[in-house]
Design a protein that fits this description.
Chain lengths: ~300, ~325
């Protein structure tokens, strides 16, 4: 099996979520998944540029997709929002000939062409669909036995289903299937499909911090050791802002948040340090040491 | 015999409880079929609303296992398959006052709907005598938003509305959009400005409304349009617009977002220094953010800037 992707890291993997870059490269290397970073990729717009100029957002992502097409490989992202933005652009251009003509006129200025030949996928989907859970199970060196995991999907890997379409957005299972394959225990809780609120944390700070607290508290009360998310933006909201969210709650909401590639990496035998887990605001090391030592 | 168990939330005006009803499974049935069967055969006091049975009157929306659906349009077989269960929990729509059992009170929503002037403010281009003709292209802009049947599902699913009753329900934003883009409307701002003043920029981009809308109306794209228009109206002095403009400008500068300057661009230097310092120190301490490390222009930045110039020229907009 030879898996090769055009890698679209997205802005956060270059900055506040650099640990995802570290963990992903470790995991991809161990699984034999080749990631070729798209040279000159630009910000996907993060669901904000469209609020200023929809046509511009479309053209910028057409450029990103064209960079992947030039590699002749599907495009892989680690961020839910990057996945949604790129897939939305692709769907629009593929379905609307006039939009395609306009976009290609714009891309000519950058000596690029959109052809529509590359699919856009997410690391989670690659694990489940391309690599396969059976194969993943065989690679597990350190089963995460006893680690209680609350999956937090994040909106933009599920919704809107017209654009995402990987699994049913009302009751998705992909995260739980990966967690199970790694030997960890899934913990059901109320907020697994909730919005983290990250995209509105500035204009709607009070509401978003409240949501952050409710999500963390819900997982904590359900008995989870950690929350795991496939999206670095959800991670930023639930981890970096957790101390701010705590101020709105009398009871403790504390729970460490892991990135999906970190959870996979732990099961593949990498240490928390190798996966950048020391870079988190809410320290995940004690619970991992306690649980993984027992395994 | 296979059965389906319905756990239905009851409310009698003062007391709320869950009541279980078990009915025999039948294939090819809807949620509404089950509710009617329970009312007719087991409990005549079970209260819900429904009329057309064809997903056009919008009166039968309820929540099943936490997801808002039109009872008449939703297949029981699909729900049982999706949730891998024979037990379904039925509750009234969220973000509405409940009158009795599954019946909610629409009056507060109807009052709020009026704020966006959900009617045509006609241009001088037509008259009662000559009519107000539209081209097919002009009509297409209002076709999808006109599909709204005001079932309340988007309100029930909206994650911002759940935290903030000031926020306008997505169907109300849809109505503002529907008239703002109508070629026969003379005053789009009169529909848009009330939306702006009711926390338009607080939409979380959670896509719950789009995902659950039985008419698949792209409320996300409508909200984006309303926001674009507020910026064109000059309404940029708010955190939502400044945040979006920061992304827009950063990508032209380097191709990437500059996370270090984003809070300053969104909230201003003073607020950032006075309110965000503990947050920033936390990120610097854990190594999440290095204020000295800033994005450099990506390879091909000239091409990106040419794309900006091209799009702006085509749109005839300000740079």
């Amino acid at each position: 099996m030879r898996l090769r992707y055009g890698f679209f890291p997205g802005c956060t993997l270059e900055s506040a979520a650099r640990e995802v870059m570290i963990a992903t490269q470790k995991v991809a290397g161990a699984l034999g998944i080749e990631l070729v970073e798209l040279e000159g990729w630009s910000c996907c717009g993060a669901s904000h540029i469209q609020d200023v100029d929809e046509e511009l957002a479309l053209a910028l992502n057409a450029r990103n997709i064209a960079l992947g097409e030039a590699l002749g490989a599907p495009i892989l992202t680690l961020c839910n929002t990057c996945t949604l933005m790129l897939r939305s652009a692709k769907q629009r251009i593929d379905e609307d000939e006039a939009a395609r003509a306009r976009v290609n006129e714009a891309l000519r200025a950058a000596d690029l062409q959109y052809r529509g030949t590359s699919d856009i996928t997410h690391f989670l989907w690659v694990l489940v669909r391309d690599y396969g859970l059976e194969n993943l199970r065989k690679q597990v060196k350190r089963p995460l036995t006893g680690l209680k995991v609350a999956c937090f999907y994040g909106c933009h890997i599920l919704r809107p289903p017209q654009v995402m379409g990987f699994e049913n957005p009302w009751n998705p299972r992909s995260m739980e299937m990966v967690v199970e394959a790694l030997g960890a225990e899934n913990v059901p809780y109320g907020e697994r499909l909730s919005c983290c609120g990250f995209h509105a944390v500035f204009p709607a700070e009070r509401e978003v911090l409240r949501k952050t607290g409710v999500s963390c508290r819900s997982a904590r009360e359900a008995g989870a050791d950690v929350i795991v998310t496939p999206c670095p933006l959800c991670h930023m909201q639930l981890d970096m802002y957790q101390p701010d969210a705590q101020q709105q709650f009398a009871e403790s909401i504390r729970i460490p948040i892991l990135h999906l590639p970190q959870l996979v990496g732990l099961a593949l035998g990498f240490s928390p340090e190798e996966l950048g887990i020391r870079r988190h605001v809410v320290d995940a090391i004690p619970v991992l040491e306690a649980k993984l030592a027992r395994a | 015999m296979r059965t389906i168990t319905f756990r239905i939330q009851r409310y009698d005006g003062s007391r709320s409880w869950f009541q279980e009803y078990v009915i025999p499974y039948e294939s090819g049935r809807t949620v509404l079929w089950a509710l009617i069967k329970i009312r007719e055969e087991q409990d005549p006091t079970l209260t819900f609303t429904a009329a057309c049975r064809h997903a056009i009157c919008g009166s039968c929306a309820v929540r099943v296992n936490g997801h808002s659906v039109l009872a008449c349009k939703t297949s029981l077989d699909e729900l049982l398959k999706v949730f891998q269960t024979d037990v379904l929990e039925v509750t009234p729509l969220s973000n509405f006052p409940v009158i009795r059992d599954l019946v909610v009170d629409w009056r507060p929503k109807t009052e709020r709907l009026k704020t966006v002037k959900p009617w045509l403010i006609p241009t001088q281009a037509g008259s009662a005598a000559t009519g107000f003709a539209q081209s097919p292209q002009e009509y297409r802009r209002i076709a999808s938003p006109t599909d709204c049947i005001q079932c309340g599902i988007c309100s029930s699913e909206c994650e911002q509305l759940a935290e903030n009753p000031r926020f306008l329900d997505p169907f109300i934003l849809n109505r503002a959009y529907r008239f703002a883009v109508d070629s026969r409307d003379a005053a789009p701002e009169e529909h848009i400005r009330p939306a702006l003043e009711s926390d338009l920029w607080k939409c979380l981009h959670c896509y719950q409304c789009v995902t659950h809308c039985p008419k698949e109306i792209r409320l996300d794209q409508e909200i984006a349009y309303l926001r674009q228009q507020t910026i064109r109206m000059g309404e940029t002095d708010n955190p939502g617009a400044r945040h979006a403009l920061a992304f827009h400008d950063d990508v032209r500068n380097t191709g990437r977002l500059d996370e270090v300057t984003l809070p300053i661009k969104t909230e201003g230097l003073l607020r950032t220094v006075t309110r965000r310092l503990p947050f920033a120190m936390r990120l610097i301490r854990t190594g999440k953010v290095n204020p000295l490390q800033r994005p450099r222009p990506v390879r091909g930045i000239e091409g990106i800037r040419k794309i900006y110039a091209h799009v702006k020229e085509k749109e005839g907009k300000r740079q």
